[in-house]
Amino acid sequence: MPILVLQIAFKMKRVLILAFAFGAVASSPAQVVNYTTALSWNSAVDYYQAITFTSLSPNVSVTNQYAGAGVNFQDAVTWGSSDFTDGIGIFNAGGSSPIEIDFTNNTTAFASDLLVGAQYSLYEGSTLVGTSNAFGSNSFAESYGGVTSAVAFDRVIVSNWAVAATPVLDNIYWGAAAPAPEPVSMVALGVGAVSLLVRRRRNLR
Fold first, then answer.
1. pLDDT in the model for residue 118
2. Sequence-separated contacts (24+) of 57-62 with Cβ below 8 Å
3. Which residues on neighbouring strands pair with residue 62, listed in sequence order?
């Protein structure tokens, strides 16, 4: 009998420690999480929308053409090139200046297909929410950069970190990051597992 009690106590302690650990992780999420593949970003979001720019001709200033989708652009011009997967993307014709993307509604996830280096600065109004890693490289090659944020944002400033030149984006994606498990839920799961363990041990006596 004492051995049985000790086994139950040990397993209760182990499960509660695991539940606490899960809760600590969930209660302190990373401000910005970075993704370098579409597959990993897609798995981290609940839903998303996309703009491919294929409805526009090359050398068109992109401003409010996608306002109906809740997205506006500043300092962006379409660029037709076979380097893009669908033949068209956007850049800043002003040279080394960034591209600004404004969202009517707050969002918690953003991504883009890239042709050069890019870094995202996420803002809620005038407040900087977070900054992404440096995606891509200084060579003209396809890459991908995506982020999810624990804090909602309504503006993304895309700059070229690799060289003093414009960022070049193919398609852009935005949406809602999948919610992280609540710490209370993780603890409840651990306590529930302990209860089942105790009940099973009692039934075996």
1. 94
2. 58/88, 62/90
3. 76
H or E, element range at 18:
helix 2-27
* Sign (positive or negative) of CA dihedral 95, 97, 103, 109: positive
| pLDDT number for residue 181 | 59
| CB 71 within 8 Å of CB 147 | no
Q: What share of the chain is helix, strand, coil (3-state, %, to 5)?
A: 30, 40, 30
Give pLDDT, residue 196: 45
pLDDT for residue 12 is more than 60? no
> Could you tell me how many residues make up the chain?
205
Q: Which of 45-49, 52-56, 113-117, 136-140 has the lowest mean pLDDT?
A: 136-140
Contact (Cβ atoms closer than 8 angstroms) between residue 80 and residue 58: yes
If phi > 0 it is left, if psi is from -120 to 50 it is alpha, else beta; for residue 37 that is: beta
* E-state strands within 24-83: 32-35, 45-51, 61-62, 71-74, 76-80
Q: What's at 104, amino acid-wise?
A: T
The Cα 35–Cα 38 span in angstroms is 8
Radius of gyration of the chain (CA): 24
Q: What tokens were used for 117? A: 């280096």
This prediction has a pTM of 0.74
- Which tokens in the block code for residue 10? 């040990």
Mean pLDDT of the chain: 79
